[in-house]
Specification:
With about 220 residues, this protein is mainly α. It is about 70% helix and about 0% strand.
Length: about 220
Amino acid sequence: MARRGPYAKSRAVRETILSAALDVVAVRGFSDATVAEIAEAVEMSKAGVLHHFGSRDELFAAVLEHRDERNNELHKHNDAVDAMFAVIDHNTDVPGLVALFSAFTAGGAAGSPASAAHRFTAERYDRIVAQLADAIAHRPGWCDRPHDDAVEAARLLIAATDGLQTQWLVNRSVDMAAAVRNLWAALDRGGPAPVLAAPEAQEPDVPDPHGTAQH
C-alpha cells in the first residue's frame, strides 16, 4: 500500500477544515462565522487553520468551492438545469451559505482582480454559464437554435437566481425556486427575448419665435 505523504496529509486536513467550515457558515453566515470558531470545531488553532488557506477570504472562497463540489457530486446524474433547481430548493435550508455567497460575489464583482472573492466569482461564472448553456443547448427544442440563445438563457437564469437569493435573505417569503422555474418556462417556450433597438431620438419641439405655427 502506498504511503501517505505530506501532501496527502495536508489535503486531508484541508478537507476536514472545509467540511467543518461549511457547517459553521451554513448556520452562522458570513458575518458571524469566525476563523476561531471554525478552528475550534476541528480542534486546531486559528493560526493552524490559516496556515492551510492563507487568509479568511481564501478560506471562505474555498468553502464556496467545496459547496459547489458537493452539489456537483450530489447531482452528477442530472443535467445542469435540473441540478440548478435542486440547489435552489436546498439553499433555503442553508441561509448562512446563501449570505456568504451573496456577500462574496457582490464583493468579487467590484473588488480587486487579485482578491480571492474576485477570482472565485469570475471563475465560477465562467464555469456555470458554460455548463448551463451546454445543458440547455441539448434540450428538446433548443438544438436548432443558435448556441448564443442557450448562453443568453443561462446568463438570465443565473442572474435571476443570484438576485432572488438577495431578495430572499431580506424576505423569506420570496419563493426563489418558483420564480426561477417560471422564468425557465418562459425561456423554454420561446427562447430569450430579442434585443430591441432603441427608439430613434426625436427633435424636441421648439416654440416658433414669430408666432407662425399652425394650430
